[in-house]
């Protein structure tokens, strides 16, 4: 499994080289086989006898962080959606994106995102899951902002990353608490300790943090505002990220942790309420939109709310319906995004006010849109898969325990579904029927090439096949996914006709009232001036960012005044206060003066000279004198190392001190001469307090470190293994070169980067002076 997860990322490394021949063959043809082969590999696991598979590859075993992959029915459903629709999206992009586009960048980002999503749904280790989770945010940021020369693309990319990463960090906090409580990083092992988690005092925090991550990623109310702005991405990105993959990551997270939280009352309240509100608000706002992708964006928000609500219900019927709708939504919504892209590609606009009458000129596209929109609307036809899962959704709202929320949910479900019907009909009939307005279109409309139609055709075939034979995917596929969420789910026969029962009457009410609203839409459309009117969560987001930027700038401008003295005072003062407070609160000060070596007159003399030199430095008025007197302190430290029989360290100190003094002399040669301080008495008092306090703090920390014995000394380990592991008798050298080899390497790298920066600044100054 790990190979299947990482192969897209490995192939992405070669895309920059492959993309150089894009003038001969489109890069997408090479990329297509990656998700397609992954899909073929995982499809073999579909079957009634499927059992979960676990695979572990060590990463950081000392911290319990390993690549623990777990394939069960739920992860298999998502893996097949990620790889299957991923392959169709790549095929679609071959004909949608011109060779003049930055194809190398596009497919690298896409493959990076594919790896991230596969890692999310297959990871059993919570910290590995979090790593992949944040990689989805980063890669989606790059994909949404692919057309970076557009201001709206940059805005949408940044907005999506800020909101989803905020949720991701919250989720990370919940994961840390879970690992502390259970003593494990495995989700499956946590499920076996459900009683321990539910009995924890931290349960509300854990639930809140994890749900924040899920709600932000799956665009739940009120975090839904990033999704419509993400539609600035190319249509293949929208079809992939916002119909089948990224936005369903939050759905997956809630489903994966449902076995732990489903019996907790607040889980039902929060998830169900947020989900049903998102369903109603998303569907209501979709009717207001004029951009085809904006309609589909709010449609996605409402459909995700519907799935989230069912997971919140937690009943057997609701969980099965949620899993079924995840599959159905991916088929009809993926095809509709591609249809929107075709219309934009062939007419030059997505503005529904300029479209109309395209049925005769684009019959294939219109047919695909017909199946997609009517399935999304839940029209009761036996060849539309959307009707089945919507009917199961209605049924699941009726079997909840009696309380105020559960009594209102069926009515809210019907309300949200009515507007779902309205925007579906609005989408189809607004584009393909009505008066022809071809003069308003930037391009003369015509049918799309067959290559661009193949992917939506495959998805629509999925809509029809599942609609005609719903039980075909039930026992061998959907049931396993539902059992991973609720082990009590049993085989449920999916059929079109259930008799004259309440769900059917709810569906008829949706169609009847929805049709009436469609026919009278222009008469009641003014309701949007009242609700939401001028209210907008986007305005709240923009205002919040504006305030953060303003206050951040004010704070930064306050202390970034160009004074090195101010910077050092702030750094040392903050370190003094924070460190002292923390050590005081944690009883970190330990003073023991036993087991100390005797102090001779020689050592006292050296220390006394160092103290006098350090104090004298403050009163020096000449650069060279100050540097030389300060050097006495450094050389005094070297003498102490010699006295205490540490010649290697003494030699290192001598070299460092000599180089430092030389560098100071070179630098101070170009600096103005020292002047007598003109600081006020108050400033001098503050500086003296910080200096004395920081010095005293370091002294106390040194004594406390010597007096404390919290851990076994590591010196014996170095003495025993310096020769066998490092191949050297000089323990200090072995530690620096071998034991701490990476530290030394990074230190050298930092120095190298600093040197390059200095060279760049010098060259920039010379170039500026020459100009």
Automatic annotation (TrEMBL):
Chain ranges of the MrpA C-terminal/MbhE domain: 686-763
Domain (NADH:quinone oxidoreductase/Mrp antiporter transmembrane): residue spans on this chain: 123-408
UniProt xrefs under Gene3D superfamilies: NADH-ubiquinone/plastoquinone oxidoreductase chain 6, subunit NuoJ (1.20.120.1200)
User: Does Transcription regulation show up as a keyword for this record?
Assistant: no
Signal sequence segment: none
Question: Where, by residue number, does the polypeptide cross the bilayer?
Answer: 6-21, 28-47, 67-94, 106-122, 128-149, 161-182, 202-227, 239-260, 266-287, 294-313, 319-343, 355-388, 408-429, 450-469, 500-519, 567-585, 597-619, 626-644, 650-672, 684-705, 744-762
Ranges for domain NADH-Ubiquinone oxidoreductase (complex I) chain 5 N-terminal come to: 60-107
- The main place the protein resides is membrane
Q: What is this protein called?
A: Na+/H+ antiporter subunit A
**Provenance organism:** Virgibacillus profundi
């Amino acid at each position: 499994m790990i190979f299947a997860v990482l192969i897209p990322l490995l192939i992405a490394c070669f895309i920059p080289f492959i993309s150089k021949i894009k003038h001969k063959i489109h890069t997408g043809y090479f990329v297509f086989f990656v998700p397609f082969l992954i899909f073929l590999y995982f499809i073999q696991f579909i079957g009634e006898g499927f059992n979960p598979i676990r695979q572990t590859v060590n990463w950081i075993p000392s911290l319990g962080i390993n690549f623990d992959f777990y394939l069960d029915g739920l992860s298999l459903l998502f893996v097949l959606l990620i790889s299957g629709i991923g392959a169709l999206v790549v095929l679609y992009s071959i004909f949608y994106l011109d060779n003049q586009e930055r194809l190398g960048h596009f497919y690298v980002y896409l493959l990076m995102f594919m790896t991230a999503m596969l890692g999310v749904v297959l990871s059993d280790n919570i910290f590995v899951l979090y790593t992949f989770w944040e990689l989805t945010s980063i890669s989606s940021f790059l994909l949404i902002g692919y057309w970076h020369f557009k201001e709206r693309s940059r805005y949408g990319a940044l907005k999506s990353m800020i909101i989803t990463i905020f949720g991701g960090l919250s989720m990370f906090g919940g994961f840390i608490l879970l690992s502390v409580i259970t003593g494990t990083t495995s989700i499956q092992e946590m499920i076996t300790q459900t009683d321990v988690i539910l009995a924890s005092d931290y349960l509300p925090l854990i639930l809140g943090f994890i749900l924040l991550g899920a709600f932000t990623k799956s665009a739940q109310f009120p975090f839904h505002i990033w999704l419509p702005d993400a539609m600035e991405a190319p249509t293949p990105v929208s079809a992939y990220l916002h119909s089948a993959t990224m936005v369903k990551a939050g759905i997956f997270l809630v489903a994966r942790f449902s076995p732990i939280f489903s019996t907790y009352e607040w889980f039902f309240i929060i998830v169900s309420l947020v989900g049903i509100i998102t369903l109603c608000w998303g569907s209501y706002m979709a009717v207001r939109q004029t951009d085809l992708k904006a309609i589909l964006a709010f449609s996605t928000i409402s459909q995700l709310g519907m799935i989230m609500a069912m997971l919140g219900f937690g009943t057997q019927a609701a969980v099965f319906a949620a899993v079924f709708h995840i599959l159905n939504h991916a088929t009809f919504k993926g095809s509709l995004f591609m249809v929107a892209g075709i219309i934009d590609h062939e007419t030059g606009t997505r503005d529904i006010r300029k479209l109309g009458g395209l049925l005769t000129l684009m019959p294939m596209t219109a047919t695909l849109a017909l199946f997609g929109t009517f399935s999304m609307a839940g029209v009761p036809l036996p060849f539309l898969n959307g009707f089945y899962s919507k009917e199961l959704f209605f049924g699941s709202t009726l079997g909840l325990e009696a309380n105020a929320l559960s009594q209102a949910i069926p009515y809210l479900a019907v309300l949200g579904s009515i507007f779902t019907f309205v925007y579906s009909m609005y989408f189809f009939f607004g584009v393909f029927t009505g008066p022809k307005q071809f003069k308003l279109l930037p391009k003369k409309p015509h049918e799309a090439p067959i290559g661009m139609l193949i992917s939506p055709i495959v998805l629509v075939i999925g809509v029809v096949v599942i609609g005609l034979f719903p039980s075909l995917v039930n026992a061998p596929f959907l049931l396993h996914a539902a059992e991973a969420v609720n082990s009590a789910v049993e085989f449920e026969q999916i059929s079109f006709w259930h008799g004259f029962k309440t769900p059917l009457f709810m569906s008829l009410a949706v169609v009847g009232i929805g049709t009436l609203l469609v026919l009278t839409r222009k008469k009641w459309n003014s309701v949007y001036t009242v609700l939401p009117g001028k209210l907008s969560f986007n305005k709240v987001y923009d205002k919040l960012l504006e305030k953060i930027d303003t206050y951040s700038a004010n704070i930064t401008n306050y202390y970034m005044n160009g004074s090195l003295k101010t910077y050092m005072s702030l750094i040392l003062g903050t370190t003094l206060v924070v460190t002292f407070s923390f050590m005081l609160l944690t009883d970190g000060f330990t003073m023991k003066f036993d087991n100390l070596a005797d102090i001779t007159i020689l050592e006292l003399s050296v220390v006394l000279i160092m103290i006098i030199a350090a104090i004298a430095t403050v009163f020096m008025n000449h650069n060279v004198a100050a540097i030389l007197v300060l050097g006495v302190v450094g050389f005094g430290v070297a003498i102490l190392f010699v006295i205490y029989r540490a010649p290697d360290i003494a030699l290192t100190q001598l070299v460092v001190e000599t180089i430092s003094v030389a560098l100071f002399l070179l630098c101070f040669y170009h600096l103005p001469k020292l002047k007598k301080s003109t600081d006020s008495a108050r400033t001098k008092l503050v500086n003296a307090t910080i200096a004395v306090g920081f010095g005293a703090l370091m002294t106390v920390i040194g004594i406390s470190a010597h007096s404390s014995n919290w851990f076994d000394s590591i010196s014996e380990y170095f003495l025993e293994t310096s020769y066998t592991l490092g191949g050297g008798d000089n323990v200090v050298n072995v530690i620096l070169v071998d034991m701490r080899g990476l530290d030394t390497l990074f230190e050298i790298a930092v120095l190298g980067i600093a040197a390059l920066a200095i060279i760049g600044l010098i060259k920039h100054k010379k170039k500026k002076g020459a100009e």
